[in-house]
Design goal:
With 270 residues, the chain is α/β, with parallel strands linked by helices. The chain has two domains: 162 residues, HUPs (Rossmann fold, 3-Layer(aba) Sandwich), CATH 3.40.50.620; 89 residues, 2-Layer Sandwich (Alpha-Beta Plaits). It is built from nine helices and seven strands, in the order αβαβαβαβααααββαβ. The chain has a four-stranded parallel beta sheet, with helices on both faces. It has a three-stranded mixed beta sheet with strand order 5-6-7, covered by helices on one side. Strand 2, helix 3 and strand 3 form a beta-alpha-beta unit. The mean pLDDT is 93.
């Protein structure tokens, strides 16, 4: 804990030196923590900016708006259609780079309008270990990542968020719905909607950490390791199968390894 608190002191010093910020705010644990600390340090010189995308679950946008309202932090939502980004629909391995670059440019424009000096994102030091093309977009556009600069891990953020009584301290990780579709398989609004509805069904059934990966006529379900046995209780498997059939899937399969970040990147590794 002393180490996390020392990192927090460093984070506050880093944020103070930036003077004013537009924070790319998704409503997740990392960006919510960064936003709250930045607002505590810089006050009204901080603006939360949420880009409304069709490939991000609607429930996440509602949660982001509620967080900003609860903590009385200025919040701007801007619309964007990532399906119009060149190459996005083809779903190449650098899809995230193309999307993040376009979104950071939109946030930078909002920052300029509000005379804010920098754009910041909520990447933490653990994010450096996976295939994350979006990191390149941030660097190219001079977006700052204060949590990385303070060497904060996801665990540090959760510990400190809990101390600060932030409702996001134990929030499960969320991600763009496009990450559910294997690279090279075309992204369509219909696929994104099917994935969102499938995941909502599982969340409503009581699961906390959920991914439904879209493999054509097959839905590959990932849930947290400790939640896997729930599928063998009662008639849940039958209910999931019937619901997923309604969403257009012929087959529904439970991934035996369970949820893990970057599972769609596993085929890219040697």
């Amino acid at each position: 804990m002393p180490e996390a608190r020392e990192k927090l002191r460093l984070l506050k010093a880093l944020i103070k030196s930036l003077e004013s910020l537009a924070v790319a705010f998704s409503g997740g644990a990392d960006s919510a923590f960064l936003l709250k600390v930045a607002h505590d340090v810089l006050g009204q010189n901080v603006l939360a900016v949420t880009v409304r995308l069709s490939s991000f679950p609607g429930r996440e946008f509602a949660a982001a708006a509620e967080f900003a309202r609860m903590h009385r932090i200025p919040h701007r939502t801007i619309p964007a259609n990532e399906l119009d980004i060149e190459g996005f629909l083809e779903n190449p391995p650098d899809r995230c780079y193309r999307c993040k670059r376009a979104l950071f440019l939109k946030i930078a424009a909002v920052a300029d309008e509000n005379r804010l000096k920098r754009v910041a994102d909520g990447s933490n030091i653990d994010d450096l270990g996976d295939h994350r093309p979006g990191v390149r977009a941030a660097r190219e556009l001079n977006v700052v990542s204060p949590l990385q600069d303070a060497e904060m891990t996801k665990q540090d953020i959760r510990i400190l968020s809990r101390e600060m009584n932030l409702q996001t301290w134990d929030k499960p990780a969320a991600a763009c719905l496009a990450t559910r579709i294997p690279y090279g398989q075309r992204i369509t609004p219909e696929k994104l909607l099917a994935v969102e509805r499938a995941e909502r069904f599982l969340l409503d059934a009581g699961f906390r950490q959920v991914r439904v990966r879209h493999h054509g006529d097959t839905a590959r379900i990932e849930v947290a390791a400790e939640e896997r046995t729930a599928f063998f209780q009662g008639d849940l498997m039958e209910k999931v199968y019937e619901e997923f059939r309604k969403l257009g899937f012929t087959y529904a399969a439970l991934d035996l390894r369970g949820y893990r970040t970057g599972s769609m990147n596993e085929g890219m590794k040697p």
